[in-house]
Design goal:
InterPro entries: ATPase_NBD, FtsA/MreB, PilM. With about 375 residues, the protein is of the alpha/beta class. The chain has 2 domains: about 190 residues, Nucleotidyltransferase, domain 5 (2-Layer Sandwich); about 160 residues, 2-Layer Sandwich (Nucleotidyltransferase, domain 5), CATH 3.30.420.40. The protein has 12 helices and 15 strands. Strand 12 and strand 13 form a beta hairpin.
């Protein structure tokens, strides 16, 4: 749905395979938030299988939240596994922008426009060319998310690919955004630290329950994404369950208690987690090679940023740093929010990264 004047209040709604999260932000302050754990099979690989139970879960978040949600307008996250992001450059023409993009897009991507929904963000413009980041999602998937949100009493305003929301949440809009990049180029102070901040590519690792997303960005702009279904929090839990002969519920508890510590659980859990991190490090190296060969950018100064619920796993930063020889840091999903952020609140809201980014869409 399109509004002549977009609503001033909107909540971010993040639907994933095992949980739903909602966040409302007003004037860069957290107003309300809540989450609900989904049983397996309600949502699978981003596809909604049980509309009634998904809608009921959304309603429960909105009604049971300790802090009241005051809007029914929602920005929805669309699953990374079903979406596609592409940077395109088109002629600077006069006319309806949506129609121009639809006309130019098939020249860049082999896509049937009758079967997809599009979202776009203008990145750069000059006298002759305009550059856009295009998000493409199958129409069936988009319609399912619209349907379930309306069943829950919400009115969807925007549908957005998950990677866009994550970047908006954790990249400081005062220093890292694409809109500020060009201002930085003309700074008088050309110290090396500023140059690295501007030019260095970054890989965002969203470590989720059922998959991990790798997002390559440079100049604050998404270049491409990779979704890994074989590396996730659930993958680690299954490994612990199989090797230690435990139920999945028991294995999840052990994972939280022992974590990545070599001293706890005789190091058994750490060994399982380390195998997963080693596979992840190889995926990162392959991503860097692809970016260097296909995009022509140097990856020597690549920074890796961890977010998502799995980022709270102790020791993962140190292991990745050793395996990739890259600077690793934990994301701060509250960086663009004026609430006082400390280590405890950052850890608490790390699983809300996507929902926060969605809620910030109209604010930054």
């Amino acid at each position: 749905m399109y509004f002549i004047t977009p609503p001033t209040k909107m909540l971010g709604l993040d639907i994933s395979d095992l949980s739903i999260k909602a966040v409302q932000i007003e004037k860069t302050k957290l107003k309300a938030w809540g989450d609900y754990s989904l049983p397996r099979g309600i949502v699978e690989e981003g596809m909604i299988k049980d509309f009634e139970r998904t809608a009921e879960a959304i309603k429960k978040i909105l009604t049971d939240s300790k802090r009241k949600f005051t809007t029914n307008y929602a920005v929805l996250s669309l699953p990374e596994t079903k979406s596609f992001i592409k940077m395109i450059e088109i002629p600077n023409k006069k006319g309806n922008l949506g129609e121009i993009i639809k006309y130019e897009l098939p020249k860049h991507v082999p896509v049937d426009l009758d079967e997809v929904e599009l979202d776009w963000q203008e990145i750069k413009s000059n006298g002759r060319k305009r550059k856009f980041l295009i998000g493409i999602i199958p129409e069936e998937v988009a319609n399912d998310y619209i349907k379930v949100s309306r069943m829950a009493g919400l009115e969807p305003v925007v549908l957005e690919i998950e990677a866009q929301s994550i970047v908006r949440s954790i990249m400081d809009c005062k220093t890292d955004s694409s809109t500020n990049f060009f201002k930085k180029l003309f700074l008088k102070d050309k110290k090396e630290i500023v140059k690295k901040e501007i030019h260095g590519p970054k890989i965002i690792l969203d470590l989720g329950a059922t998959r991990t997303s790798l997002i390559m960005i440079e100049y604050g702009i998404i270049q491409f994404t990779v979704s890994l279904s074989d590396i996730s929090g659930e993958d680690i839990t299954k490994g612990i369950s199989e090797k230690m002969n435990l139920t999945l519920k028991e294995a999840e508890k052990i994972k939280i208690i022992c974590g990545n510590s070599p001293k706890k659980c005789k190091g058994c859990v750490r060994n399982i987690i380390k195998e997963c991190i080693e596979r992840l490090a190889e995926k990162i190296k392959n991503m860097e090679k692809f970016y260097e060969s296909h995009f022509g950018s140097s990856v020597r100064e690549t920074e890796i940023i961890l977010c998502g619920g799995g980022a709270n796993l102790a020791g993962i930063s140190n292991d990745l740093k050793k395996l990739t020889n890259r600077n690793i840091r934990l994301a701060n999903p509250l960086v663009n929010i004026s609430n006082n952020a400390n280590d405890e609140s950052i850890k608490k809201f790390m699983p809300y990264t996507t929902a926060i980014g969605l809620a910030l869409r109209r604010i930054i």
